[in-house]
Amino acid sequence: MVRAQQPNPSDPKKFWCKVYQTKHEVVAAICDEDVLGRTLEDEKFKLTVNRSFYGGLLIGERVALKIMQKVTIGNLMGEHIVEVALRGGFITRENLIFIDGVPHAQFAKLNQR
């Protein structure tokens, strides 16, 4: 399981993160601090970046990377967390969608036999 850690004051960007444990998966929902609570809407999608889903702990970039390394599924919302996940190799630009101009991505790690 992922252990909670306080954000590092030297991390300039902060993210809201909530981790869920299911029978077979560990899921992290991570969003940029400034998108929590916003309702994003365009011609295809309407999404509320809900505190009940994303709003667990306020974390920094280093902790976000550690969490993404440990979970099996990630749900990411916001320009900065998506950029962190791109740099970390968890997602690719081709798999991004934009809702009201805000990038969103999901990833799943598959077990190899």
Q: What is the approximate shape?
A: globular
N- and C-termini, Cα separation? 22 Å
Compressed to H and E, one letter per element, the order equals EEEEHEHEHEE
Assess the beta-strand content as a share of residues.
35-45%
Which consecutive residue ranges, at least 5 long each, have pLDDT under 50? none
Q: What's the total helix number?
A: 3
Keywords for this entry:
alpha+beta, uncharacterized conserved protein from methanopyrus kandleri fold like, 113 residues, six-stranded mixed β-sheet, 21% helix
What does this structure look like?
The chain is α+β, with helices and mostly antiparallel strands. The chain has one domain (14-108): uncharacterized conserved protein from methanopyrus kandleri fold like. Helix 2 (61-70) crosses helix 3. It has helices spanning 51-54, 61-70, 79-88, and strands spanning 14-21, 26-32, 39-41, 46-48, 57-60, 73-77, 97-99, 102-108. The chain has a 6-stranded mixed beta sheet. The longest helix is centred in the middle third of the chain and has 10 residues, at 61-70. The protein is built from 3 helices and 8 strands.
